[in-house]
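Sample log: Pre-rRNA-processing protein TSR2.
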Amino acid sequence: METRKLTAESAPIFQEGIGLILSRWSALTIAVENEWGGRKSRAKADLLWSDIFSFFTDSKRDDLEKILEEGLLSLNTEAADGSIEEVAEKIMIMHEECLEANYQSVEKLRTSKPPPVAHVKQLLYISMKGKLHG
């Protein structure tokens, strides 16, 4: 069975699509914005993008969901909301479409507004019990 490959035209469009999907993934966006992976959080997210593209271009395939999960873990983040599977599915569908020179998914992402991202704040709770009843 012959493996289909992205063309010179479709590869950069697919790369753009990966970036658009990742930029709309709340778990990843929040982790990068809050630097949960340290100062190099943006670089870690960029590496995830690169790893995803390599997943489709290298003959040694891993598991896309595993790559996504490891990317989040590098940012000290876990997603138990089903978003890893959802993101993997969207990327797989987009890849199949790009193989057929169908760029509808990418075009739809280009023209749509990203959903609002919830901002996470770290809260510090202090027990005042001892101080109030000293």
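Observation: Residues 10-132 form one domain.
Observation: The helical segments are 10-23, 26-33, 41-57, 64-73, 83-99, 104-111, 129-132.
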